[in-house]
């Protein structure tokens, strides 16, 4: 144990022990215990529908029967390509009870990427969202996989399910966002589970501690696709470390916001491990949506919130206009995946009255390595202190045998029960990151009185909205674009979103390439968060003596342009102006097709000025492609049909019965009771727009 870590222990909160008791139970034992101790406690609130722990276990038993009938045995891989939903939770635990390995995937990842992951991981069964299956099988076969399709509307409240089936435009629009076309040969997961007999889980041998429980897809810090193998021991140990750290977390009493995606290590550990172990209630949403989240908060006041900085920022901005919202039930919150601005942390604490702490980790560590102490000894802008039973060294990046002096910058090495079992079928990459039992994180930091302080990332990973963007992957997608000679991709500061993806391009003589063309070219090749948000044109890229592009120098040049002459900022402004002009042109085409007069157009614009301002702000900030803009406008009710309806309402003293029915149908589609549906497309163009979503299953354009 080094002296710096000894200093770290002195800053531990009262009651936090240096070491956890070694774990003896596998993941599914936590669900057994929650059912035994809190059978009728609400485990999940999903858009207004509640599932108790007994309800969940009953569905898990049926799901285990389905998987067994599909041939799943201990050690097999079951791939889940799903948003956050009860079916995801149930399928995860059904596979776990059988001793299978769950492979988690982003449902909005490009189809080619998903197929590569499925083949590499050796999936026996693929349980996926209908829209994902539609993408994966478009113009192709089933690729030899056995798919089971999930209809997430089956988990909605009964009233919402009924309203979605009504022959109304609003219901049709909502169905299109939530459902997909399933090809022949693909069975319904929901039907199979509902008709299956419950399995006697006690008769199963079950998994062992060192069996692989989960595969998390990652590019590491190099960008090459890999699957992180996390054993039951890894995940359960990390959950126990978190529980030791959060001394105020009371079993059977907490309500947690389940907004982080389960395919991400942070979301998986929090929602599918810690919350189950602590028998918490989870308010679950398929994507991060402030309106839906606050509606859930009114039903089940949230006490713990784990998220990324953009989520906290959006919630705070939303409640500025909603003084009736009270967040003071949130006693403590954890921010991870990207740096948290001290001023944002203070705003959140002032609003909630609770503690905000930061965590540091990576998928290879299940994921938590360190965090701020749950006390007044917190130090903003640091990575915090190593967690219990977690050893940390800072070494010379070129010579891991040599520890650097306290205060000097070096690479973070980690050892503990949460450190992964290696990359799936990839011993070479595993050897690259493991050194004598220690995990090489690739992050550079220094000790400061026992606290870890990040200096820089050893690799040039970009963190955009909490998601990893690998420059080499983006460069590969852009480099073969017509007119492009060379490209370097870097991350530039972007307020609470962390970093924005910027592509520095060298063009062929006479070639003209704009941002819209780049985004159109990369669509389908990259996830939405990896697509460039801006471009800069270079005469040549800075290179080392060996000819390697120096991304650091590219970034420095961009910063210099912005600070000294505004040149780079002007390029972004030009791109935004062009996008705004395209949006105005799109509106004009909608009005023309509807047959509106200039007087009607003027009246409509005046009546909807606030909504138009919000839409234009989004367009200016995100510079979408024309297709993205069309989808975004349609998802906010700007269509020829809706405009015609508005004109009809304008020119008659009383709306028709059909119009009243359709407009009124928007409110309860996604929520039960009195809560409005946050994602419903309305025939009334004055309906307020939604904030852009943080992570996958964003809005209509992202779900297509």
From TrEMBL:
Region span, Disordered: 651-704
Keyword Ligase among UniProt keywords: yes
Domain of life: Bacteria
Regions of compositional bias (Polar residues) in chain numbering: 680-689
Domain AMP-binding enzyme C-terminal: 473-548
EC nos: 6.2.1.3
Species assigned in the record: Arcanobacterium bovis
Protein name: Long-chain fatty acid--CoA ligase
EC category: ligase
PANTHER family: LONG-CHAIN-FATTY-ACID--COA LIGASE (PTHR43767), NONRIBOSOMAL PEPTIDE SYNTHASE PES1 (EUROFUNG)-RELATED (PTHR43767:SF1)
SUPFAM superfamilies recorded: Acetyl-CoA synthetase-like
Ranges for domain AMP-dependent synthetase/ligase: 32-424
GO molecular function: long-chain fatty acid-CoA ligase activity
Biased composition (Basic and acidic residues): 690-704
A Pfam family: AMP-binding
Mitochondrion found in the keyword field: no
InterPro entries for the chain: AMP-bd_C (IPR025110), AMP-bd_C_sf (IPR045851), AMP-binding_CS (IPR020845), AMP-dep_synth/lig_dom (IPR000873), ANL_N_sf (IPR042099), ATP-dep_AMP-bd_enzyme (IPR050237)
Keywords in alphabetical order: Ligase
